[in-house]
Each structure stands twice: as C-alpha cells, then as structure tokens.
Amino acid sequence: MQKSPTIGIVGGGIAGLVSAYYLSQKVARSKIPHLRILLFERSSRFGGWIQTEQLEKKYDSHIFEHGPRTLRLHTGFSSLDNHSTINTLKLLEQLNIFNEQFCPIEKTSASFKNRLIYYNKKLINLNDLSLIFGGKPLRYPPIFYILYEYFSEKGRFTVQDETIKSFIYRRFGHIFAEDIVEYLLDPLIKGIYAGSVTDLSARSVFKKLFNLEQRYGSITGGLLKTRKDKQNENSIHFLFDDLNLNDYSTLLNKYSIYYLHDGLEILIKILIKYLQSLSNIELKFNQTIKKIQFFHNEKNSIEILTQSNEKYHIDHLISAIPSYELANYFDNKQYEILQKQLNQIPFVNMIVINLLYEKKDIFPLEAFGYLIPSREQSHLLGVLFDSCIRQKSDKNKHGSQLTVMMGGAWFDQLRLGQCTDEQLMHIVMNELKKQMDLNEKPLFYSISRLNKAIPNYIVGHDDNLDDIYALIRRYNLPLTLVGNSYRGIGVNDVIFDARLEIEYLNLETMKRKHLTIDCPNSPLKWCETKEIAQACDVIEQCETFVWTTRMETNRVNLSIYYETLCPDSRQFITTQVWNTYQSILDIVNITFIPYGNARELYRPETKLYQFYCQHGAEECYENLIHTCVLNFYPKSEQHMPFIYCMESIEGNVETVAIQCAQKSTIDFDQITACTHSRLGNQLQHAYAIQTENLQPSHQYVPWITLNGEHTDDIQKQAEKDLIGLICNSYKGSDPPVQCKRNL
Ligand SMILES: C=Cc1c2[nH]c(c1C)Cc1[nH]c(c(CCC(=O)O)c1C)Cc1[nH]c(c(C)c1CCC(=O)O)Cc1[nH]c(c(C)c1C=C)C2
C-alpha cells in the first residue's frame, strides 16, 4: 500500500518555480509517480522581484522591468564555471521560448562594453583605455598595480575571510588600493549587490580571486598558473550531461549578456503554464503561511499551517523564501541558534525608478549605464540605459528609456524610506540634470520600492552557511534551502543552485517512508530489508544474528586505486561504486586509495614528501583532501557521500570540497588543517607506498582489486557490473535481496 509522499515548496519566486520544475522532471524519471508537489505563494502573483510592466499603446508599448532585466552569458565574479549560464539557456530551450525570446548583446557592442562611472562631476568611460593611462581613475599605469600585487607578501592560507576593501588593501598596499577600491570596486559592488566594499565578504563575492590568492599566494600569480586549465573548461557537468559547454561555445564567445524580448517575466509565465499542466503539482496563490512545524517522529514529517487555518502534511520542505523569512517560522526555542544564523544574512532595500522620455537621444553615449562611486556623494547608486541595452527590440519605438537605482546599503542613511514619490522624483531629476545634463521631464515613470530585495554576503557569510547546514543536519530537518540568500544572487546562479539541490534530494527515502509493509509469513524473509524487519519488529535480532554475521565473516573486500581528477576514476566511482554503496554495503568493504599515477619525492630539508600528479597540482590537492577525509571519517557511510559528491562535480577543487563537505557531515576546517599538516603528508605517503607495492603493479586507473586480487577479468566485470561481481564473490549463505535480483 502506498500513500503519496509530498514535497512542499514555500515561495513562488524564480527559485520556487524552477525547484518545482526540476522536481517534476526528477519525479518523472524516478519511479515515484505519486509524489505530490505543493507550491505556496503568499501574494496573488508569482515571480518575486522579477516583474515586467507592459506600458499602454500610447507609450509605444515600452516595457518597464521592476527587477532584474539582463542575464549573464559570462561566468561573472563569483561563479567558477559556465554551467549555470548554460543551464539557463537549456531551460529556455526546454520551455520553447529560446528562439522567440533570446536577445543577446555582442561582447563588442557599445551597450555592453561602455560602462561609465561618474567621476569628478563627469561621466567617464572605463572602457576608454586612454583615460586610464591619463590618470583617471587609476593614478598609475595598470602594470604597476599588477606587479605590486604579484610581489606583495603572500597571504597563503592565512585569512579566513575579510571585507573586499581589506582584501584589496592587503594585496595592493595603500598607494595602489585606494584608486581600485574607491573608483572601481566601490561602484562595481554597488552595481551588483547595492552594497558596500566595507561590509561585503571578499571570500563570498570574489570567490575566484580569493581562492587564487589562498592557493597560489597572489591573484596575478594564480591567474597566470591557472590560465592553462581554462582550456579544459569546455567539459560536461558530471551530474548533468545536458550541460555541454562545447554546444554553446560559439554563442558564449560572441555574446556577453542577454535579455528576453518580452521581459524577464515571460520566463515566469511560461514556467507557471508548464507547472499548471502537470497533475501532481498544485500552485497555491494567496497562501500566507502561519506556522511550519517539524515533527521528530518516525516519519520526520512537517506540518504547514496557513493563515486560513488549513493544514498540510509534507515529507520535505524546500524553502525558496529569503533566509530572514524562513527564520520567522522557527519560533520554537529549540531552533533558536538556527534562527539566529538565518537572520545573520542582511538584505538591503532598493528603489527602482523606470523613466520614459519623449526624445530619442538622451544618452551622452551608447552605453550600459553608469555607476556612482560613494566619494561623489550622490543619492543615486547608478543609472541603466535601457534603450541602449534593448536596442534590437525597441528600434522601432519612439522615445528613450532609463532606470535609476537608489538605496541599497545607503537606504537608511539617506532616509529614502521617508521620501514620498514626489520627493524621490525631485531628487532623481536634479541628479540626472547634474550627471547626464538631462533637462527633460519624463513622459511617464514608475517607482518600485523593493523591500529587502538584495542579500548582502557580508564577512563570514560562508562560515555562517556552514553553521546553518550543520544545524539542519544536527536537527535532522527534512529541509532544502534555495534562493538568492545563500549561494549566489544572479538569476543564473539561483536557477542552477535549485537544480543541484533537487538533484541531491533523495526521493527513495521519502518513498520508503510511505510504504506500509506487511510482515511476511516466512521467517526466512524477515531480515531481507530493514523495512521488512521493522514491520516484523525484529530489527535488533536481524542486526545481531544476520546483518552483523554478514559483516564479520563473509564481506567482500573491494579496493579502488584511483586519482581524483582522472575521468575514468570519476566515472567508475560515481556510477558503479556509488550504486554498490547504496544497495549492498552490508556485504562489502570498500577501500579507497587516492594516489593512482602520482609520484613522490622526499625533501630532506623539510622532511616532507612532495607529490607530482598526472592532472597537476589541483589533483594533488584533491587527493590530499580525500586522504584526510578517509582518515578522519573511516566508515563508508561517513566518507562515501563526500567522495561521490566531489567526484560528481567539476570546478575549483576547494570550492567543490567546501560545497560537498556542507552536504555531507564533514568538518572542512578539520580537513583543511590536515591537508596543511605533516599528518596529511604522511597519510598521503602511506597511500603512495600502498599503491607502489601492488602486485601486479597497476598500469592504469582506476585499478580494482577484489579480496586483494587483480585480474583483467575482475577489472572488466567491475567496470561493467560491480554489484553483480560482488554478489557473485559473496560466500555467505544469506545474500541480500539485491543480490538475488542480480543473480
Ligand atoms: C546600481 C545598482 C544596480 C544595478 N544592477 C543591480 C544593482 C544593485 C543588480 C545587479 N546587477 C547585476 C547583478 C548580478 C547578475 C548576475 O550575476 O547574473 C545584479 C543582482 C549584473 C551587473 N551589473 C553591473 C555589473 C558589472 C554586473 C555583473 C555582471 C555583468 O557584467 O552583467 C554593472 C551595473 N549595474 C547597474 C549599472 C547601472 C551598472 C553599470 C553601469 C545597475
């Protein structure tokens, strides 16, 4: 008998909708067609901050975007690869809106390249190199900055996190940092986070640059060393084989950003239409949630109580609301710390003013827009030249359009919350007159006050996230976090992150919770599975007399000699070994030896071994991470999910390791300490010896031994059907049910 497992999603913004979308696809692939998905949105519309207003005909049907309007085709500052970018393109294709809606902007076009700043009461173009050499806004030639950074003291492995300002001052020194911070990074950070360089985290916002410094000792040195690796980036994502970068390389090389012809909200509308066509999804508008209660019972279920006192029982909750809103639902004292950690992510208020002018050419030059450094003391953060950006779609329309952004981290200081619309417009008109020499009155305008619109990843954000995940694990909460509060604020990041999170959801356990199993008549079957044993109330007896006996006497010993970045090793671990782990772990000991074709050299001066790996320094580092994890987490249940995760995801090793540690129960601080210690070095050396002592010597990786033996036959069978191989080698009289199916 089977009741329907149910997943609840709270929040009907882009994160909630794409979570429902990817979940529906996962359900269709899996064998749980009865799984129900409930999506709760408190307002009467879906889409969150993504909102497109279509103006009347008398305004030439211009569109006003009240939130995001362009999407990235390049990696951006925090993303480490192009997968999130490709993923959104795939989504547009899957929803059949790519061909009619996708409007890319060429990298060479003025409306992308020309990014201006308001400097010394003038608009200057950062793309105009002569300006930089002419001493604006950088006082010295750029090569001075680069050389200083390259030779400045290495901060390797010393800094946990710091503000963007302190990072730049540490790397470039006082003489050079001032220009970079005041006139480049201050406006840039305003133009993405509406935040301040004195608050935001270098580690979270400039992930790539921060990691390069931590790894290679300097940003420039790191960039030089990793230039070669970039060529290998055109790969397929390990979890999602539809994300083949090669399919899109021409497009990514040519274009920089894109917008959707009818505005970004078309993506929301099409998603809703698709979700409404599915029978197992219910989209619930106007549903304010009063309470979410987690029950720590056998089923670990959740109760959602709405304002209208309706109750919903669900098995898993996907939170697609901002972190501070989720925090409110944890009103039980028990979750006080989790509530506090969620509340530690600050959000800033924005005022977005769209303006339509009658005249066609109101812009000083064709550009993306301009940003205003804090030193210039303006009430505005920046101005977007929408007509330049949407040139292709709006070429036959009259007039011109721009958007003014206000608020962010300076919202309270400038008392913008107290301004009436008239006062805001007065400020805007004055500033545009001063900055753009724009004296015209707009034909039409629209003011949006976006409360707590953009999360600011302040210093310690990544550590805070670690704590949040550790608490969710400690309380054993069936909870998934998606949305821009956590791991990226761009639309691409939010969509891709939701897809990853859904991929990691284990629907099987949800299904099992809903199976009502009757105890079979024959006692021979009582210990076949945990669920049957539970139904027969003989768990303890099975553990003592059947399952442990299997464990002690007849277990098959499987050893995998591998290297972490080798594609064949990764393929083997993420398919054959992972399936084996998931189904027949109680008859096999799985041992990992992460070394493979590496070589070692003893350095008497340091009394340490130096390792050289087939796939370079990155691989040596990942081998070492695996080595340390295997040492501190010796049980398969402890290290296998981490190893599987790391071997599944491509990208910067440290970032992936942190991400995977968060998802499993690994304390990454402990592992980092080990990788930098003599202990880590000794453990890696032990694996080198173990690999070098193999009889016969290994000739390739992964190299498999079964009960200490390697033959071509064992290798071939292992690569083809590892479960079958282990089941056949198992000598116990009570093979698990999965083997019976296999034999
Ligand atoms: C003036 C304020 C803002 C402007 N846009 C935003 C704010 C707060 C919001 C915003 N802009 C970007 C993102 C991230 C998108 C993503 O990663 O997918 C967000 C949330 C993109 C962006 N905008 C600028 C830059 C350099 C970037 C990074 C990626 C890219 O190159 O597209 C610069 C910029 N933003 C604004 C202006 C006027 C401006 C430059 C002239 C407005």
Automatic annotation (TrEMBL):
Catalytic reaction(s) noted: protoporphyrinogen IX + 3 O2 = protoporphyrin IX + 3 H2O2
Q: Where is the Saposin A-type domain?
A: 512-552
Q: Name the Gene Ontology molecular function terms of this record.
A: oxidoreductase activity, acting on a sulfur group of donors, disulfide as acceptor; oxygen-dependent protoporphyrinogen oxidase activity
Annotated TM spans: 6-23
The pathway this protein participates in, as annotated, is: Porphyrin-containing compound metabolism; protoporphyrin-IX biosynthesis; protoporphyrin-IX from protoporphyrinogen-IX: step 1/1
Q: Does the keyword Transcription apply?
A: no
Q: Which Gene3D superfamilies match?
A: FAD/NAD(P)-binding domain
**UniProt keyword Calcium present:** no
Q: Name one GO cellular component term.
A: extracellular region
- Pfam families, alphabetically? Amino_oxidase (PF01593), GILT (PF03227)
Which InterPro entries does the UniProt entry name for this protein? Answer: Amino_oxidase, FAD/NAD-bd_sf, Interferon-induced_GILT, Protoporphyrinogen_oxidase, SAP_A
- Mind listing the GO biological process terms from this record? protoporphyrinogen IX biosynthetic process
Q: What is its EC number?
A: 1.3.3.4
Q: Please classify the protein's predominant subcellular localization into one broad category.
A: secreted
Where does the record say this protein resides?
A: Secreted
Query: Keywords on this record?
Result: Disulfide bond, Glycoprotein, Membrane, Porphyrin biosynthesis, Secreted, Signal, Transmembrane, Transmembrane helix
Q: Name the family the entry cites.
A: Belongs to the GILT family. Belongs to the protoporphyrinogen/coproporphyrinogen oxidase family. Protoporphyrinogen oxidase subfamily.
| Free-text function comment from the UniProt entry | Catalyzes the 6-electron oxidation of protoporphyrinogen-IX to form protoporphyrin-IX.
Q: PANTHER family from the entry?
A: GAMMA-INTERFERON INDUCIBLE LYSOSOMAL THIOL REDUCTASE GILT (PTHR13234), GAMMA-INTERFERON-INDUCIBLE LYSOSOMAL THIOL REDUCTASE (PTHR13234:SF8)
**Any idea what this protein is called?**
protoporphyrinogen oxidase
